[in-house]
Design brief:
alpha/beta, 12 helices, 9% strand
Amino acid sequence: IAVWLGPLLVIVLQGSTDSLAYAQEILLKQTAGRYANAWDHREPFWYFFVQVIPKYWVPIFFMLPWLVPAWRKQLAKHDGRVLVLLGWVVLVLLFFSLSSGKRKLYIFPALPALILLVAPLIPWMLRRWFSKRPRGRTVFVVLTAVWLCAWFVRGFIEPRKEGINPHETIMREVARLTGNSELVLVSWREGHWLFAQQPIVHFGFMESRSLEQSAMWLRSHPQAYALVPARDLARCYDPQKARSVGDTSRAEWFLVGADADNHRCQSPAPDKVYPFVWKHPL
């Protein structure tokens, strides 16, 4: 945490408006605000225990009937190593379960400790299961090899199954429709930057004002366009004059030009404008 907060503190102490806006967005909104009152991926308290661990923590999940008694015996012997590692796992699960917003990747930090807990017990479990069952040992080895091969093959199949990144599809469609004109990004995601095919513009990290500022920008740059999520569209633009260009996991996105302005939004000019263009778009 200090590795992240240290440089952030140095940036904030420099006192620039951009630095403070960045800190407010990343530290307060995206971290503290999202933890206390998530606006995406809202799930019940038991989400990790019912929908994530049984599915994604395989095969460790199926080993729990043997692991839990072994850990209990180690704790009874006051083994501090087990206590620290179990505490690590429990705290991660509890911390992220208390937040209303949950994604399976949030509890990945618990896995290193869990692996360190399980690894020393694997030889003991194999002896217990198969010392008197040579046929069972053979079946286990075969199933393990098949499972590992299946995971290896899945690494090639899954990308084809998922298809093209939706951000890439959207940005290519936007470039085609606009003739590579300047594009204003509203509530943008990293994928919009990565797959941008044309010059893009944004106004910093303050999402609360980016929609209004985009309308003001199009009034002074009538040849430009804006990419706007569906949830915000009607505040400043006429939905009848907007064109849907695709969906991502978070929103449906619409392309609007200056003619879609409904003139309901007024905003002071942005303090800073951040233009960007890739020399060699993906």
